[in-house]
Amino acid sequence: MMTVSFTEFRKNASAIFSSIEKGETIHVLRHGKEIAEIIPINQESKDRPSWKQKRMKLTVQGEAISKIILDEREN
Q1: Which of 24, 31, 44, 61 is buried most deeply by CB count within 10 Å?
Q2: Alpha-carbon distance 30 to 17, whole Å?
Q3: Residues of 36-62 as b/e, b for ≥16 C-beta within 10 angstroms?
Q4: Which of 31, 40, 38 is closest to 6 using CA atoms?
Q5: CB 28 within 8 Å of CB 6
Q6: Which pTM was predicted?
Q7: 37 SS3 class
Q8: pLDDT of 4-54, one tens digit each?
Q9: Could you give the domains of the chain?
């Protein structure tokens, strides 16, 4: 378990989230009082997206929605 101040959390968010992904639990303090506990998701939940993973691009077959809207406006 790691404890960081809110200011330190903001300055080092990327490194802190990397620690969380490795299994570390983080406690965030503001003015010396604990305001948050950030825990990693269970390893069984690998289907959840990670902020570091490549994102999927969603595509839909057919005409672009902007074209459909413009066609409707003309009619």
Answers
A1: 24
A2: 18
A3: eebeeeeeeeeeeeeeeeeeeeeeeee
A4: 31
A5: yes
A6: 0.54
A7: strand
A8: 999 999 999 999 999 998 999 999 999 999 999 999 887 555 566 666 667
A9: 1-41 (3.40.1620.10)
| Burial class of residue 13, CB neighbours in 10 A (0-12, 13-18, 19+) | exposed
Q: Which amino acid is at 48?
A: R
β-pairing verdict for 26-30 and 33-38: antiparallel
Q: How far apart are alpha carbons 9 and 27 in whole angstroms? A: 10
> Residue type at 69?
I
